[in-house]
Amino acid sequence: MKKLGPHEYWPIELAAKHLKTTVDELVHAAALGRIQLCINVFRMAEEVDAIRMSRPFRPEDHGLPADNEKSPFQIEFDNAQWEHWNRTKKGMPAGIYELAYDDANRLEMSAEGKISMTWASRYDGHDWWIVELAPAVDVSHKQIVMLQEELEKFKDSKVNDRPKMDAREHTAYLNVIGMLVHLLRSRPGKELSESALIQMIQTLEMRHRKHPDERQVFGLSERNLQEKFKSARHSLSMAGIQLSANARGDGSLGLGAH
């Protein structure tokens, strides 16, 4: 792993020790979008494709009058987009990429303690780029680094004062998710695949938004739902409950206690 100075990027274990918190707490804060974490995959993969992200347009940045006809929601959305674009001011060194909120959430919920990443984003000091990495990299806590300014942000904020979820409570949530998913997929006469259930959840979420242009509710992306369902099955399996691979439409739960 490329060595980085303490005033650039801190290895996550060292950052956690300095902040008197845990690596899991920092990953959780990143999953909630409260801090930015990065990954250091220097010499682990190469960029085989790169797409420049569109910079949010603001009329005032081009000497144009502000659009006063925008709704309060649109103004808030545009401001959030601009704030997100400017989440860092420094160009990222070679091999450093952002750990996106969704990827931080996948890592937090991963039963294996690692995730595979093919796509990542980086800032070159002027533009954000979405890049394809080859080969795909396995990311665990060992690859995570924290920018000095993010360390200060965490230190000054209240994100590290929130009530902590212990391991038993975390397991309980996974077990409940696993059982509910299986019940929904096993309704008599209405067998559902996991992908169909995910599509139903996302359709339901979209229908109940206050505004059709609102962002998707955090945590309900297809990739995140797949990861949570997988972790839930693993948790139940570790408890001695094996869910059948396919939903059954005969009303049976298809459970086997060992």
Give structural notes.
- By secondary structure, the chain is an alpha+beta fold.
- The protein has two domains: 9-161, no CATH class; 167-257, no CATH class.
- The protein is built from eight helices and nine strands.
- The chain has a four-stranded antiparallel β-sheet with strand order 1-7-2-4. Strands 3-6-5 form a three-stranded antiparallel β-sheet. It has a two-stranded antiparallel ribbon with strand order 8-9.
Short description:
Helices cover 38% and strands 19% of the residues. It is α+β, with helices and mostly antiparallel strands. The strands form three sheets. Strands 1-7-2-4 form a four-stranded antiparallel sheet. A three-stranded antiparallel sheet has the order 3-6-5. It has a two-stranded antiparallel ribbon with strand order 8-9.
Which features would summarize this protein structure in a list?
single chain; four-stranded antiparallel β-sheet; 8 helices; disordered C terminus
Give me the secondary-structure topology:
Layout lengths: L8 E3 H8 L3 H9 L5 E4 L5 E7 L19 H14 L10 E4 L1 H9 L5 E9 L4 E12 L4 E4 H9 L10 H19 L8 H14 L14 H17 L2 E3 L11 E3 L1
Antiparallel strand pairs: 1-7, 2-4, 2-7, 3-6, 5-6, 8-9
Give the overall silhouette.
globular
Structural class of the secondary elements? alpha+beta
Number of helices, counting only DSSP H or I runs of 4 residues or more: 8
**Major sheet: size, sense and barrel closure?**
4 strands, antiparallel
Count of beta strands: 9
Secondary-structure element series: EHHEEHEHEEEHHHHEE
- Radius of gyration, in Å, reads 21 Å
Extract low-pLDDT stretches.
1-6, 247-258
**What is the average of the pLDDT values?**
78
Percent of residues in helices comes to: 25-40%
- Strand order across the biggest sheet? 1-7-2-4
Euclidean distance between termini CA atoms: 43 Å
Work out the count of structural domains. Answer: 2
Percent of residues in beta strands?
Answer: 15-25%
